[in-house]
Amino acid sequence: MKIPSTVILLLGAAVATTVASGQATNQSSMLVCGQATNGIRAEVELISCNGRLTNIVVWANHVTDTNFVPVLDLEKLRKHEMEYYMPTNCFCGPVELRDSTGRVLHELKPDLSFRAASERDLPPVVDVSSLAAYPATYSLEAAYGNYFRRFIFFNGLTPFPMPLFVTSPRSDLVRFQLGAKKPYPTATLYQRCFELENYFDLSKPGQYKFTVWPKIYQRTATNHDLCRRIDLPPVTATFEWSGEKQN
């Protein structure tokens, strides 16, 4: 995949200091933003703790929705009445990691995506960095039906596919962590928090370039369950990794 040559870099890093176990913890973040399409842009946030990169978060930001109203009605979510949704593999879209020489790092888990417990021993699913994992369209009802059949018991209360922009005009698509225990609990049904070292063959310290080609879906009409894919412009974020593992 071709690395995008243009990104918008926002250096308005927010710094927060907390005290845990008697030690001060300094957190900072840097945001790299792509160009907007259909009023939505992709963002990659680099979050550091005490000078060490700990999280890479991919966001979708509905920048033109200035009159956003949070959706608190679970029934509306269950009935697929939202406008935007995640891909059916609950992933952000193709991702790539390059080292300082430009070499593309090998993906250790190219099939990384949501799988039901009963499916964990099945052959690998489609590579999440392959366009084949992101069809041009999908039906909400059909996707929900396929999802439902993965379970022996399912209460039907969890919306699927996963809606976007529910409580905020900004939704996280995936989170990669580096060498730290997961501070964010992983949902039972949506696996969207991963260890970067377990996904890519990341072993040597140095400078790396993380690129994402985000994919989201939008309903074709308010009274139709067909969703079409939106290819958000890619975003590349450069970071330094010390190679040091965190506890």
Task: Please tell me about this protein's structure.
There is one protein chain. The chain has helices spanning 74-78, 140-148, 196-199, and strands at 8-10, 15-20, 23-33, 40-49, 52-62, 84-85, 95-98, 137-139, 170-177, 193-195, 206-212, 215-219, 226-231, 235-241. The protein has 247 residues and is mainly beta. Mean pLDDT is 79; it is low at 2-22, 120-124 and 183-190. The radius of gyration is 18 Å and the shape is globular. The protein has three helices and 14 strands.
Topology:
Blueprint (H helix, E strand, L loop, with lengths): L7 E3 L4 E6 L2 E11 L6 E10 L2 E11 L11 H5 L5 E2 L9 E4 L38 E3 H9 L21 E8 L15 E3 H4 L6 E7 L2 E5 L6 E6 L3 E7 L6
Parallel strand pairs: 9-10
Antiparallel strand pairs: 1-3, 2-3, 3-4, 4-5, 5-9, 6-12, 7-11, 8-13, 11-14, 12-13
